[in-house]
Write a structure and sequence with these properties.
The complex is a heterodimer of chains A (626) and B (180). Chain A is α+β, with helices and mostly antiparallel strands. Chain A has 24 helices and 24 strands. In chain A, the strands form 6 sheets. In chain A, strands 12-9-4-3-14-13-2-24 form an 8-stranded mixed beta sheet. In chain A, strands 1-23-22-18-17-11-10 form a 7-stranded antiparallel beta sheet. Chain A has a 3-stranded mixed beta sheet with strand order 19-20-21. In chain B, strands 2-1-3-4-5-6 form a 6-stranded parallel beta sheet, with helices on both faces. Classes of the chains: A alpha+beta (626), B alpha/beta (180).
Chain lengths: 626, 180
């Protein structure tokens, strides 16, 4: 690994650096809101936005732009995602009026049962599971893109090879996570200088990563999942007590399926299914639909709305922990959870006058199984989109599988077996036993990309390494995930199993109005992702905010396993005092705190045919249109 | 060029005079955070490298001062750190104020060490810097954190010697000098 240890300002090739690093940053920086008619790209870094925009301007579509931006963000925002992690994207193909969910989250190896993982192993080889990013992005490109692999990967390779200026967000994260990146010599050589974290403005060069990206550009998925890169990953993980085989990598495939879908006040909500958390987004919106939020007032000003939304969030988290896991390994009551009937039940469980139960941890899960079957049958009769191969719906028996998925299911076997299991008739809340690390996690890790092209094709993508800098282990320039930390640590819902994906908060979402994109939205932020995404949607749909207003509005967060209602600065004293009087324990934050995510969103003005993009000022992102 | 050298020499001389005329710093040292950023651990590494007897306590209190002869405070706000410690920003500010008051009462000199650069400036970080600056007898700052001359201004207002270093690793040298 050759790392150039120098500040941008003392670079010998100043002209080159000026052209390739500073100009895009200067052009794109400090412009959180953007407008465009031909396309819009919103990412967490100006160089990733530039990569996406470059593809659109070369005639690529939203998928080309997303793949370019996603490869690039793994380079320029290495703390949040990259080749060593995984993610998911929801695609809206406007001409076909069809939505697709590509799930490329990392998954446990076939040998996972051999390792004895504890929460102390997060930054060791034991925490690394099969990365999915390269497979997911290449699958999207091959199926739905127009440009060549070399073209879309060129910006990422360029940034890694030539370097880029460390921005304030990455500099802060390096300070916060020095211990993680200095444990591994390869990571340390990239991210530190004399054993201390590199700082804002320093040039970060990732030569080995550039070589690996180049290999993938030349050879496709085999450049990562077979050959020397795969061998290096397997060797390193096994040397550190982990368990992964060459076959695990070779057999890994992205899952392509139908997103989960719901309706909120006449808008279509399309999001990532289980084990990701679009289900929770739809459940929350369904519950909130039982009240007229607009007449109550925005949650930043109205204690009544704030209380209702907080009580809603407690319940969606309780349900999520009780039921959501990899549907290939369990009977997840997806249709029940996203049904209006279940939401009505959950709404009726809310006491509008006080926090009830008083302690958040006592929030009980509902019983979505009660509504699962009826809704599934109803859905079968109205669902006409059958062009996709696999979904996490319980009625997927009629779905067809392509060769890759056949291989996948043959390999797993367990999904079909799960279908023969008797359907659960009672909630499994008494078996919920979650990894405590999950609830001590204050990181806002992960990253989100929202893109739309001139034809109205849209992509909402969220990808991650698990936590900031993942396992902290770098192999061939690839920072590897710590995906094991996303599984529950005991035998319960979301327990680890061979070839299983862990549950994830990621919720890439697209909202349609009259069958056309209205909002493309998502956020990083660990457990805060769901509350943030719901708040963004409510801000847009219920309160008619502009893209920038949606993103700038103060946020809040609460869930079952953390007895605080976390309020960002800007939520009024009156609203805060109102919820305190109702029995909530409030924790206050400053304005625009990274704790509450880093949303990248696009709002479409369908009448004016204009795209409005907004990058979150909490995280130094940039939206750019043309 | 000669003029520049003369100015630099003069600054060095003034710093040197200030250091020598200021309090003497002795080990053992207590190192703590103001804002719960992980920067405190980096300063711990620097002090260890300098061979100075010390203890690092992220949330040190008056009790932690027992037997200590110098207090190094590393200001820098971190949501992550506060979350991990389970305290609010106000709790943290109250702890820092109480600790500074206790150090003053015990005549334990305070050194402010800021290594986080621009990532640990503005907003709530500056509130902690301001608070610690009221009590500090010396400041060591990675120069990126002083791009707006914030520390320079604080230094001249409070008549505290300010030692600027180009990067974190370089902060070890002036630290070691203070304890010689």
């Amino acid at each position: 690994m050759r790392v150039k240890n120098r500040r941008i300002f003392s670079a010998r090739n100043n002209l080159f650096v000026l052209l390739t690093v500073f100009i895009p940053i200067v052009l794109f920086a400090q412009e959180p809101l953007a407008t465009g008619k031909q396309g819009m790209v919103a990412t967490a870094h100006p160089l990733a936005t530039a990569a996406g925009l470059e593809m659109l301007q070369q005639g690529g579509n939203a998928i080309d732009a997303t793949v370019a931006a996603a490869f690039a963000i793994g380079v320029v925002e290495p703390d949040g995602s990259g080749l060593g992690g995984g993610g998911a994207m929801v695609i809206w193909l406007n001409d076909k009026q069809e939505s697709v969910w590509i799930n490329y989250y990392h998954q446990a190896s076939s040998e996972i049962a051999k390792i004895n993982y504890t929460t102390k192993d997060r930054h060791t080889g034991k925490s690394v599971i099969i990365p999915g990013t390269a497979e997911g992005l290449l699958t999207a490109l091959e199926r739905y893109g127009k440009l060549s692999r070399q073209t879309v990967m060129e910006p990422a390779i360029r940034y890694a090879r030539d370097g880029f200026a460390i921005d304030a967000t990455l500099a802060g994260l390096l300070l916060d996570n020095t211990e993680i990146v200095t444990k591994d010599s390869a990571s340390s050589s990239i991210f530190t200088d004399d054993g201390f974290p590199r700082m804002e403005g320093d040039l970060l060069v990732e030569s080995s990563l550039a070589q690996t990206l180049q290999l993938i550009a030349e050879r496709g998925r085999s450049g990562f999942y077979e050959g020397t890169v795969a061998a290096d990953i397997v060797k390193r993980i096994n040397r550190e007590g982990g368990a992964m085989t060459m076959n695990d990598l070779k057999k890994y495939h992205a899952r392509i399926g139908v997103p989960v879908k719901g309706k909120y006040r006449g808008f279509d909500v399309i999001s990532a299914g289980a084990p990701q958390s679009g289900i929770s987004i739809i459940e929350a919106l369904n519950i909130l639909e039982n009240e007229n939020l607009n007449s109550k007032g925005l949650y930043t000003q109205s204690g009544e709305t704030l209380h209702l939304m907080a009580e809603t969030f407690r319940r969606i988290y309780a349900d999520r922990y009780a039921f959501i896991e990899d549907p290939a390994f369990a009977n997840v009551p997806v249709q029940g959870m996203i049904s209006k009937e279940f939401a009505t039940d959950r709404f009726q469980d809310i006491n509008l006058y006080r926090a009830d139960p008083r302690k958040y941890v006592d929030t009980q899960a509902g019983n979505p199984f009660k509504y699962n079957q009826a809704v599934s049958k109803k859905k079968q009769s109205i669902e006409t989109n059958r062009n996709v191969e696999w979904g996490d719906d319980v009625d997927d028996e009629n779905a067809s599988y392509d060769e890759n998925e056949e291989e996948l299911f043959d390999h797993w076997g367990t999904r079909r077996k799960s279908k023969s299991q008797p359907e659960k008739t009672t909630p499994v809340r008494d078996t919920v036993n979650v990894d405590n690390d999950t609830f001590k996690e204050y990181d806002g890790h992960t990253t989100h990309i929202s893109i739309i092209d001139k034809d109205g094709n849209a992509v909402s993508l969220t990808q991650t390494l698990g936590t900031f800098f993942g396992s902290g282990i770098t192999v061939d320039g690839i920072l590897l995930n710590c995906g094991m930390s996303n599984f529950a640590s005991t035998a319960a819902v979301n327990a680890v199993a061979p070839n299983k994906q862990p549950r994830s908060s990621i919720s890439p979402t697209i909202i349609l109005k009259n069958g056309q994109p209205y909002m493309i939205v998502g956020s990083p932020g660990a457990n805060r992702i769901m509350t943030t995404v719901v708040e963004l949607i409510v801000n847009g749909i219920d309160f008619g905010m502009s893209a920038q207003e949606i993103n700038d509005a103060p946020r809040f967060y609460c869930q079952k396993f953390d007895d605080y209602l976390h309020l960002e600065g800007g939520i009024s004293e009156e609203a805060a005092n109102s919820v305190i009087r109702k029995g909530h324990n409030v924790k206050r934050y400053g304005n625009w705190d990274l704790f509450f995510g880093g949303a990248q969103l696009i709002v479409v003005d369908q009448d004016a045919h204009l795209y409005y993009g907004s990058a979150d000022k909490r995280r130094g992102g940039v939206a750019r249109g043309y | 060029m000669q003029k520049k050298i003369s100015i630099i020499a003069l600054i060095c001389l003034l710093i040197s005079v200030n250091l020598h005329s200021g309090p003497t710093y002795q080990a053992p040292v207590l190192i703590t955070s103001a804002g719960q950023s992980a920067d405190v651990k980096l300063v711990g590494m620097l002090v260890k490298k300098a061979g100075i007897e010390h203890a690092v306590e992220l949330a040190a209190t008056e009790k932690s001062l027992a037997g200590k002869k110098t207090l190094i405070i590393v200001p820098g706000f971190s949501s992550k750190g506060l979350g991990a410690a389970g305290v609010s920003a106000q709790d943290e500010m109250n702890r820092v104020k109480a600790l500074l008051a206790a150090a003053k009462e015990k005549n334990i000199p305070v050194i402010l060490v800021h290594v986080g650069g621009s990532a640990r400036r503005y907003g709530q970080s500056d509130q902690f810097i301001q608070e610690v600056g009221q009590y500090a007898k010396a400041m060591i700052v990675v120069e990126q954190g002083n791009e707006d001359k914030y520390f320079s201004k604080l230094s001249s207002e409070k008549h505290i010697p300010l030692m600027l270093v180009p990067k974190i690793a370089a902060a070890g040298e002036p630290l070691a000098q203070l304890f010689k």
